[in-house]
Amino acid sequence: MLNKPVLVESLVVFVIVLFVHAVVWDRYSWCAVALAVQAFYVQFKWDRLLQLGGAVFQFRTAANSGLLPASMVIPLLGIAMKERCKSAGIVYFERFGIVVASTGMLVALFLSVIAVGITKPVPTNTCILTGVAGSVIIYTMKHSLTVSEVIEVLEVLLIFVYLSMILLYLLPRCFTPGEALLVLGGISFVLNQLIKRSLNVVEGRGDPIDFFLLVAVVGVILLGLFFTVLFIFMDSGTWISSMFFHMMTAVLGLGVIMPWLYRLIQRNPLFWLLQFLFETQTRVYLLVYWTFLAASACGVVFYQNAKRSSESKKHQASTITRKYFHFIVVATYIPGLIYDRQLLYVAAVLCLAVFIFLEYIRYFRIKPFGQTLRQLLSLFLDERDSGPLILTHIYLLLGMSLPVWLFPRSCAPKGTLSGAGALVPYSGVLAVGVGDTVASIFGSTMGEIKWPGTKKTFEGTMTAIFAQIIAVALILIFDSSVNLNSSYARILASVSLVSLLEAYTTQIDNLLLPLYLQIMFM
């Protein structure tokens, strides 16, 4: 039987699904509900497989499978995008939203079939539920998608299968099944989009910053796969290997990634980037300010490590210490969201590439900084960093950036949405930067009443909701582009549901919470 936290987490997700489809109920709503019901039951099987060690790969053990909350993210994002673009009359992105929703459903269904298939004895009732859900989804796809769209969905599924086999083998204990679904599903979709757009380049069509995101994400992932295979045959910790690492990074960057980006944007990528970054005086001020904040974050790392060396009993940073970085990230994103969202978009992409590249240096022990990074970052590890990679800081950046990257600019009049949708780019700031931070600090210092079955406290959740409402009021004051149109009840309901999900989920909240808040705002 499922334990109480999983039941409450599942109940919150079901409420969110119904919350979204209360706005519009159509054929995709039946698919979403069917997917949610079967994912709830398959969660039983994944949790049992993880407890008995019967899963094909090694997953993160300090959490449940998280299949239900992860399964609903991509389909709900696609459905929300479809409705927004349909109301704006943008047919291309309306169809794109349908493809996203269909892809998310099929990938989640595939992961469910895997769990059912390797469970012994065969769970008859769950098999029937999965079959019914699959039939509803495939029937709807048959009557909704064109042939080219079906091929695109199957391409993403194929990429997901191969990426899962490779990365879950190479990175044991880094993900739960739900986290793997979200991360690898997202990477698969990005890779497919990049291939599709590279084969159909039309001069003047497409925003260069979107191409920059696609190439940067795929580039750093391919770079990691290349060096992982390479260092199977040689010791990565030697000076010769380190020199080869830096040389091949330059070769792949200048010889593959830069020409790829040049083909897409039809101009020199370096010149375009420099011109973009320094185009206005506001951007220069923001870059100087962000450089100061980055230096401050480095200062916190060095100070905490110096403090640890002088206090031999202290081995790990406290929760409050780790939340310093949440405050720094909030201070980084708020000015960017108010003054220049395009600059924030590109800067977040650059920051993600740098974070992943530094993690490669730490993981492979590349000289001269690999061992130093290992020592500095070991202080900030928590139970979620149980695998060979340290991913929590990357998840924090993704949680703050995804609402900015996934904001449907083409379907938003004058670059903004009305009502609760105007807060979509702020979803990461509200859910992670404000809500999660305040809940952790107040819950760990003043919380006394614990939510049943968890370590989270009632006081932490309530203060998180209150803090996010205050943050929304401040956004209204300082950002003139935000117009809520009396959508206060919807905002309060969205914030409350996501805060309750934070109290009960054992998944990476930095990644999951902003996406759910964005879905409900959209």
Give structural notes.
The chain is built from 19 helices and no strands. The protein has 522 residues and is mostly helical. The mean pLDDT is 85. Its EC number is 2.7.1.108. It is found in: Endoplasmic reticulum membrane.
The fraction of residues assigned to DSSP E strands is under 5%
Query: What is the residue-mean pLDDT, rounded to a whole number?
Result: 85
The level of helicity is: over 70%
Question: What sequence of helices (H) and strands (E) makes up the elements?
Answer: HHHHHHHHHHHHHHHHHHH
Q: Which word captures the global form?
A: globular
Low-confidence stretches: none
Number of domains: 3
Largest sheet: none
Protein name: dolichol kinase
Membrane topology: Multi-pass membrane protein
Family: Belongs to the polyprenol kinase family.
GO molecular function, one term: dolichol kinase activity
Task: Give a brief rundown of this model.
By secondary structure, this protein is mainly alpha-helical. The protein has helices spanning 4-21, 27-52, 67-88, 91-118, 124-142, 147-170, 177-199, 208-230, 239-265, 269-277, 281-310, 319-339, 341-364, 370-378, 392-405, 427-446, 458-478, 488-504, 509-521. The two termini are 35 Å apart.
